[in-house]
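User: Could you go from structure to sequence for me? I need the amino acid at each position, not a summary. Structure tokens:
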């Protein structure tokens, strides 16, 4: 564990949410998320959560998670199914965004957030977890998936292409439209530990 690191659910204050969205967008691309999107998800989408990792008073990292329901499926899960992957029909914990601020990277903050998110998903009674790993060089999240029992299902090319056009976000790796591929990971039976 990282010395002095506190991981908790967001207090929901507008200042903390604004900082969290800014941090998410700094890592994933300006415009990837909006304050409205995150606030509405936390308010209206059953199971959504935002974890913040605090080092002293500093926001060191954030994790955004969603729960896709069988009768109200997340568009991300639909996109994965449409790409030909067979996913269980159940409550699926969806790992939507993990970013650590540049000055706090490579110290274990990302790993700690990732592991904490699994505990949060278990509290929300999901039966499995899905993650879409952004394929860019040395993305440490690949190790996080493999270390926590996720199975690699395969890749989807240009996974964020249409979203980057619709929401006009610039991918930090390749700009707009985003040409990056995603690796799809699945962890089954998480209620069994
Ligand atoms: C990807 C990202 C979240 C990783 O966060 P991080 O805090 O740097 O990650 P960690 O420090 O936990 O792990 C990074 C490396 O440090 C190592 N590490 C160093 N100290 C560690 C510690 N105390 N505990 C665990 N791991 C540690 C890890 O083993 C890992 O090594 P690896 O690359 O060989 O797997 C961060 O680089 C980031 O925000 N990138 C931009 C956005 C992004 O790509 N998000 C992921 C989308 S899928």
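Assistant: Here is the amino acid at each position, in order:
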């Amino acid at each position: 564990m990282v010395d002095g690191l506190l991981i908790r659910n967001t207090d929901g204050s507008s200042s903390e949410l604004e900082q969290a969205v800014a941090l998410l967008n700094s890592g994933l691309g300006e415009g990837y998320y909006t304050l409205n999107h995150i606030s509405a998800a936390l308010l209206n989408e059953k199971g959504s959560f935002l974890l913040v990792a605090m080092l002293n008073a500093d926001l060191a990292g954030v994790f955004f998670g969603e729960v896709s329901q069988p009768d109200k499926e997340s568009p991300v899960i639909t996109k994965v199914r449409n790409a030909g992957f067979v996913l269980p029909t159940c409550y699926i914990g969806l790992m939507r965004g993990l970013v650590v601020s540049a000055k706090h990277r490579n110290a274990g903050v990302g790993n700690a957030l990732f592991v904490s998110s699994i505990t949060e998903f278990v509290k929300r009674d999901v039966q499995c977890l899905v993650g879409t790993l952004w394929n860019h060089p040395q993305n440490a999240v690949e190790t996080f998936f493999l270390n926590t029992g996720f199975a690699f299902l395969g890749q989807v090319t240009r996974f964020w292409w249409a979203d980057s056009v619709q929401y006009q976000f610039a991918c930090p790796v390749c700009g707009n439209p985003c040409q990056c591929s995603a690796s799809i990971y699945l962890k089954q039976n998480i209620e069994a530990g």
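One structural detail worth keeping in mind: The two ends are 21 Å apart (CA to CA).
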